[in-house]
Design brief:
CATH class: Alpha Beta
CATH topology: Nucleoside Triphosphate Pyrophosphohydrolase
Number of strands: 12
Strand order of the largest sheet: 6-3-10-7-12
CATH architecture: Alpha-Beta Complex
Strand content: 35-45%
Number of domains: 1
Order of helices and strands: EEEEEEHEEEEEHE
Number of helices: 2
Radius of gyration: 15 Å
Structural class: alpha/beta
Largest sheet: 5 strands, mixed
Length: about 160
């Protein structure tokens, strides 16, 4: 399903739903960040997705990373809570979702990079190279928050 992200756009469609989502910031031993290229909008992002019934937020984070990248990880903290009502995601089925995402920090444990139906590319990217990737501002905000020296979780 295709999606379009709108941020601070007065012409954005009005939200008609909200769902709990997770995203995951992972760095390897070299400091590189785990990124995917999404198949639904062709943008680079950190792994993530929707919470499913019967799982915890941390379990959803681990599952989404595994499904989208092939990497097993362990959740180690929270980067932030993102709920900007001016960030809506429109899907081609008519759903327009208000952003609500918990971004976790995690450590990679094992696995080999692989793509999935949700990721056309999976790669480790040095922080200095992120600006060269086509990413949505909401993804850049999560990465910036994760890389900051701030100890407290970010929230909106």
């Amino acid at each position: 399903m295709a999606r379009v992200d709108y941020l601070n756009d007065p012409n954005a469609p009005k939200a008609n739903s909200i769902a709990v989502a997770v995203s995951v910031f992972i760095q390897d031993d070299e400091g590189r960040i785990l990124m995917i290229r999404r198949t639904d909008n062709d943008l680079y992002s950190i792994p993530g997705g929707q919470l499913e019934l019967g799982e915890t937020l941390a379990q959803a984070a681990v599952r989404e990373v595994r499904e989208e990248t092939g990497i097993e990880c362990e959740v180690t903290g929270v980067v932030g809570l993102y709920s900007n009502p001016n960030h809506v995601i429109a899907y081609d089925d008519g759903e327009v979702r208000q952003e609500f995402s918990i971004c976790f920090r995690a450590s990679p444990l094992k696995g080999e990079l692989r793509t999935s139906s949700e990721s056309s590319e999976v790669l480790w990217v040095g922080p200095e190279s992120i600006s060269g990737l086509n990413t949505h501002p909401s993804t850049r905000l999560r990465i910036r928050n994760a890389l900051s020296d701030e100890k407290a979780a970010y929230f909106t």
